[in-house]
Structure formats: C-alpha cells, structure tokens
Amino acid sequence: MVLTRRGLALSAAAVMILSAALIAQKKDDKKQSDAQKKDTLDIVKITDGASAGQPMTNDFGLAWGREDYLKATNNKEYVPFTVTFDASKVTSGSTVALYWRVVAKDAGATATLTLPAAKKDDKDSKNKPAARYAYEDINFIPAGMGRLSRAITVGAGAYDVYVVLREQASTQKNAPAPKTSIIKQTITVPDFWSPDLATSSVIAASRIEPLNAPLSPNEQSERPYALGMMEIVPALDMKFTTKGELSIFMLIYNPKTDPMNKPDVTVEYNFYQKPAGAAEKFFNKTSPQVLNVTTLPAAFDMSLGHQLQTGQAVPLMSFPAGDYRLEIKVTDKLSTKSLTRDVNFTVTAG
Q: What is the pLDDT of residues 198-227, one digit of tens each?
C-alpha cells in the first residue's frame, strides 16, 4: 500500500544554520543585575561541585527531553536540545536561571565560551586561570514554562552536558535556600564535515510552523528549532494519535553534485509494524521523494551553501494503534552510495 502524504512546503534552500551569530551575540550582552551576577556565581560553583562528583539535587524534576544534531559553520555542529521540569514547584519569584555547561570528554578539546560575569566578579578566581569549557551560557527566564529548548555549537566528539535550573536567591533574612535542579547528560556529536554522505538527526515534530521572517540572534537563542523560515516543535515522547500525523524533517549532507551543483538523491519512506512478541512486518510506504535538477528550485546550488532537506507529514488515520518503525533510505545516485535512518514511534487511538 502506498500512503498519501502532505508535503511540508519548505524551500529546499531555505535552511541555513547561523551558529556563528549565536556565539557572537550571547544573552549576557544585556547587563545583569547584582542579584543575577550573584546567582550566576552560585550556579557556576554548584556545577563545579557536580562535575567533581558531589550529589546533584533535582527539586523541579528537571529531565533531558532530546537533542538533535545539524551541521553548523566552521567545522562545528549545531545541537539544539530540550529539557522539561515541573514549573509548579517554583516558589520563589517569577524568574529562574537556566544554565548549561558542555564539558568535552577529551581533556585536550578547546573551549569556545566562558561567562564574563563569572570571570569578572569571582574575587576568589582573580589569580586563577579561567575555567574553560566547550560551551556555556545562562538565561534568566520566566518561571511559568515547563519545557525549554536551547542549543550549543561544538565540534564533533563526546561531551557531558550539565543543565542547572535554579530559583532566584531571596534577599530576605533567613529565607530558605533557593530550589535547584541539576542534571548531567552525555552526548556524542557526529562529524558532518567529512566528505561522506550523511544526514542530520531525523526530527519528528509535534508541529512545524512557518515564520514570516528569520529570527534575530537573541530570538534564535531562545527558539533554537527555528530554522530559516520555519520553526519545528520536536516531539519528545514519540507518541501520536490516529487523529494526528507524523511530521518528519531531515537535512542531507555531502551528496555528490552534477556540473550545475545539484544533487540526484532519492528518499524512500517505509513503515513497519512492531507487534508485541512478534517479528516486525512491512506495513506501508509513501511514494519516493526525488531531489534533483527536475524537482529542486532553479536557483538551488550546493556550492553556495544551500542545504538539501527532506520531510513528509503522513496522516495516521490508517495506522492501527501500536508500535512502528519508519525506515528512511537515502540514495545518492551520482555516487551510488546510500544510508538508512530509523524512527521508532507509537500510535494510540484518537
């Protein structure tokens, strides 16, 4: 059976990851209050302790949702991630601090960022070399959100990511200590800068929304799944109802190109059922997606940095409730190379 599917109506050349701008324009460009500077120093010390093996508290039920990997610039990779927490447990003030630090597993890796406030105001560190991490940043944000996405930009390799969520410290005498959550997540960032055929993460979206204009660097830092003229809200639990659809987005890297700098790539989407206690079996498929000179915009030119994307939105009304595997096969006809990516998901009755 061949499924009908709704195209995502996204320009094949629209997605450009401007990670260099995100590094250059950090959130702490805005002056922090004295209270925020003190909170920053406290959070840095808490994270130092966690990285040294001290116990990690989790007053808000902070949890790692997912991360995704895309190609950035200057031999770096762009890694948006999402965390969740119980916002109802925030009891002090209307603002919380969100801090994230990325530590390379390879001790010889070079750092890209260090928080200016932590270096400037920590009197104990004046005669010490500044701590160096692969990435770190801090935001002071409204406490009413229970799901937050941010991003890092690093080279390929293995990293520990520390995420801290902390209430603002009270200025009242004998006030209780601010609630704090800290978690650690290990990630392995792939290398998209080799000449081999590769893809970004396959991002399954709860929805994909068009944007009227690209976001500013500050807006982008708070909405890292906004790519060009669209914004993806990634699914976290990979559960969808029969009344919904499975929306998929992915970038294809390093295909061979013809003299017009266009690729010739075919993408196949095959769905398999995974019955409990039984071997999986083929369920259905969509028509192959062809990306070449006959289907891409005339202005598409990979030598100019245009990125090749694929995506489909498949209605799930014909899917019986149960577990599934989507197999995505990418075939580069010019190089005769291919690869596959898998997406496991669950369909429940609508």
A: 999 999 999 888 999 888 888 888 999 998
19-189 carries CATH number 2.60.40.150 = yes
Does the domain spanning 2-16+194-348 belong to CATH 2.60.40.3880? yes
Predicted TM-score (pTM) of the model is: 0.85
Residue 51 makes CB contacts below 8 A (sequence gap 6+) with 101, 103, 160, 162
Same fold across 2-16+194-348 and 19-189: yes
Decide: 190 and 155 in contact? Cβ < 8 Å. no
The dihedral region occupied by 75, where left means phi > 0, alpha psi between -120 and 50, and beta the remainder, is: left
pLDDT tens per residue, range 93-115: 678 999 999 999 875 444 444 45
CA distance 159 to 102: 6
CB 281, CB 275: distance < 8 Å: yes
Q: What are phi and psi of 38, to 5 degrees?
A: -65, -45
**DSSP code of 6?**
B
CA pair distance 106, 277, nearest whole angstrom: 41
| DSSP characters over 71-134 | E-STT-EEEEEEEE--GGG--SSSEEEEEEEEEESSTTPPP-B--HHHHHH-GGGTTSPPP-BS
What are the sequence ranges of the domains in the chain? 2-16+194-348, 19-189
